[in-house]
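Researcher: Here's the sequence for the chain we discussed earlier.
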Amino acid sequence: MTSNSSPEPKRAAVTVAGRHLSYLDFGGPGRPLLALHGHFGEGRTFTRLARELGDSWRVVAPDQRGHGHSDRPDDFSRAGYVEDAATVLEHLGIESAVVLGHSLGGVNAYQLAARHPGLVEALVVEDIGAVVDDDLSFGLSWPHRATTRAELLQLLGTSAVHLTDSVREYPDGWGLAFDARDVVVSQRELNGDHWDDWLAVQCPVLLVRGGDSPVLDAEHAKEMAARRPGTRFVELPAGHAVHATLPEEFAAVVREFLDSL
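Model: Thanks. This is the structure I predict for it:
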């Protein structure tokens, strides 16, 4: 069932190793769904999805380490991201949840399922592979601060459309809600062969690929679905951020999968 009203999320936080980890809880009586964003993003990217899913699902969307309202960590390790996600669920008293992840969040999601199988009822993995090899160092050229929001967006050029959720006003001007140097390090930690984790997942999985994605190619996605039983593969006519480009279509595909559980 889809709610006609926009959910008003509650922002809260949990302390992880002395570090502030912020999250949005869209609340409601539904079953829990943990939503993990990608690099450059934050939890509020899933506001539209929470609205589309309605009261049947309680969406919890963290600002992952070093992003949004969460503190910068000492490291961006695979284990660190996975334990952050597990800690949010434990903090909320959620024993098992569906976990959805985009890009960085997608790997975090299937590694959580592989390493903490009791916590994950099912997975939605959006546009990321079992082997990851990318370079985000282009972000190092982005401005640290600008005088106005408009100036910052202008300086970001063609990247601005992907970063509007992360624009913030600081005491010394306008900037982004992450440090690009952190994201470069995080991506390096993300790169690698994660087939063992992908194949270790035992729960049902929906794998969504953007048909024009430069991140996950079609053959690799099909191999992921073929090699792991219980994987449903869907391709939509979008780029890497399917949930942002085609929010209604993405939500419909996710909702159909969730209804089948």
